[in-house]
Specification:
Elements (H helix, E strand, L loop, with lengths): L5 H16 L1 H7 L5 H4 L11 H22 L5 H33 L6
Helix pairs in contact: 2-4, 4-5
Organism: Aminobacter ciceronei
Keywords: Membrane, Transmembrane, Transmembrane helix
Protein name: Transmembrane protein
Length: about 120
């Protein structure tokens, strides 16, 4: 390994470690927006989908950046695998964000039940 290539390798390793460290944020972002409907009920979650939206958008930003930065080096198999994995996480987070926005609209229509 040459001295000039060493900082680039260190930055790449730190980026991969950052994606692993951010995995709990993405997992919190994948929680259901309404816990009652996830359990099979039909209740309104008065807490709202705020925490889910917060973690989902934060995870989407982190893993979106990971997909873009690793996707630039698509000829390297590890980078392509990491970019593909980041894209899968981003797709799951986008679906959950859409569900949380829909749930927020339902909560806004039924605001008189939450006091």
């Amino acid at each position: 390994m040459t001295g000039q290539n060493q900082p680039h390798r260190l930055i790449a390793i730190l980026g991969h470690v950052g994606l692993v460290v951010a995995l709990p944020i993405a997992l919190f972002g994948l929680m259901p927006a309404n816990e009652y409907t996830a359990w099979g009920g039909a209740g309104i979650d008065c807490d709202g989908p705020g925490p889910v939206l917060l973690f989902s958008t934060l995870g989407l930003a982190i893993y979106g950046a990971g997909a873009v930065l690793n996707g630039r080096h698509f000829r390297k198999p590890l980078r392509l695998l990491v970019a593909g994995t980041c894209m899968l996480v981003c797709l799951a987070l986008m679906a959950n964000i859409a569900d949380a926005v829909r749930e927020q609209r339902v909560n806004d229509l039924a605001s008189d039940t939450c006091g």
